[in-house]
Amino acid sequence: MSAPIRRFVTLFLVHGALLIGAAFILLPFVWMLATSIKPPEELFTTQLQILPDRFYGVENYRFALENAPLLRFALNGVIVCAGILVVQLLTSIPCAYALAKLRFPGRNLLMTLVLLGLCIPVQVPALPIYIGLAYLGLLNTYFSMMVPFFLSVFAIFLFRQFFRSFPDDIIHAARLDGMSEFEIVWRIVTPSAWPAIAAFSVFSIVAHWNDLYWPLIVISDSKLATPPLGMLFFANAESGTNYGALMAAATILTAPLVIAFLFARRRFIQGITMTGVK
Description:
Layout: H1 3-35, H2 57-67, H3 70-101, H4 107-117, H5 126-136, H6 142-146, H7 153-163, H8 168-176, H9 181-189, H10 194-209, H11 213-218, H12 227-239, H13 243-275
Helix pairs in contact: 1-13, 2-13, 3-7, 3-10, 3-12, 3-13, 4-7, 10-13, 12-13
């Protein structure tokens, strides 16, 4: 087999495998969208059919929007995700810079503890955090949904990997010019880290937009519900067995994530590549 043919066969197999994987991943979303435009009588049939015989999308989406404050759920999700992300960046970037560029005793031990922190799930500190919030009267607030995630060890690890490749000569020159470490972090190092920031932002927003565990514990007021918790309230109280309307609501609440990823996809890929995270 000649080299061009071998290369063509290799590319065909690789891209074929990627297309099959992409189709497998997108299938639930396609099915969700297809279900949201089907009438009730076409939801449970013996035939596997993506497109409906009778378009029922207007009725399903109208029912979902009229019987549940979906836009309010989406706004709550934006507030919670944005608040968490801002504090995570404010805390993680200086920590990552210190671990990557500063020399101090115990730095390697501290980095080991950061990596060990990746092994601790949120369920472990959930009870003491809940008791503390209840004691302070902060349950049923935006703050109660955000506070356990203000410090992200994954963000510290990700930004440290990125900052390690930042030239030391630039930092030394900035110090000679009289800049403080605080100014170096936010005026010199951070502007170069936008790919890593974009990559982490996608991870953070997707994780907390889809989080049901913690809001289910600390929130009982439906007006403060995030999208997954709002979907739970909607499914229990309004939609019943109306799966078309349920999928319509899920489509509406999933759309902001898809749009955000489409805008950030280049930076996301660049950030993952430059930080060396596989």
